[in-house]
Amino acid sequence: MSQQLPLKKPTRASKSPRSGTQDDVVYAHIFDAILEQRLAPGTKLSEEALGEIFGVSRTIIRRALSRLGHEGVVLLRPNRGAVVASPSVEEARQIFYARRLVEKAITELAVEHATAEQLAELRRLVSEEQACFSRGDRGAGIRLSGEFHLKLAEAAKNAPLVGFQRSLVSQTSLIIAQYESGGRSHCSYDEHNRLIDAIESRDAAKAVELMMHHMDHIDGKLNLEEEGASDDLHAVFSHLLGTRKKSPRGADRL
């Protein structure tokens, strides 16, 4: 049976501590690195290097990578190891098309089902997202933007859509890391706030219009030349290497 893990990722504003099984914690750290665009598309995810970084066995790493593979953000290559997915231009178009369809359905359902508590939580996320961008912590801001869309999916009260959205949000982050152009400005928090207002007013038509405008804004900043994130695993997870306690030989600890 998997043990409970003592390590918690150093918190940023609004970042909840990571806990759960070893698989869960490794998965969450890698998922966050993808959402924050710290892991570059095409990065080789060496089981040996990740095992050293997280202080766990290759079996644990393999299970976490398998979960990410099912979500489409990691490519599992037989006999060649795993890499962060690197969507082609055509794949990027298909992912954004699917994301638009899912976001439209989620928005319509959120207008119908979102509770006052859920709307308040969404507003807190937006406030924290804005604070991150204001202090220059772009990675945390991008992650919070992704979390906003995941929480909105939960407010829609449709479990399959939450699963679809989780995969699409992380794949979208890869596409942005690979193809985003220009100064990489971000104003999603303004668009998010207006979207919450429309949902709170139960104005489905306005909410969907705002969501589609938001997707247009993201889509409009993409090209085929820009690259951003890193392919150095030790650099991406350097904050863990400084805090992880050494464990006995063969022990699985984070």
TrEMBL record:
Pfam families: FCD, GntR. Residues 1-21 are annotated as: Disordered. One of its GO terms (molecular function) is DNA binding. The keyword DNA-binding applies. The keyword Cell membrane does not apply. Keywords: DNA-binding, Transcription, Transcription regulation. InterPro entries: GntR_C, TF_FadR/GntR_C, Tscrpt_reg_HTH_GntR, WH-like_DNA-bd_sf, WH_DNA-bd_sf. Residues 20-87 form the HTH gntR-type domain. This is GntR family transcriptional regulator. It comes from Pseudomonas mangiferae.
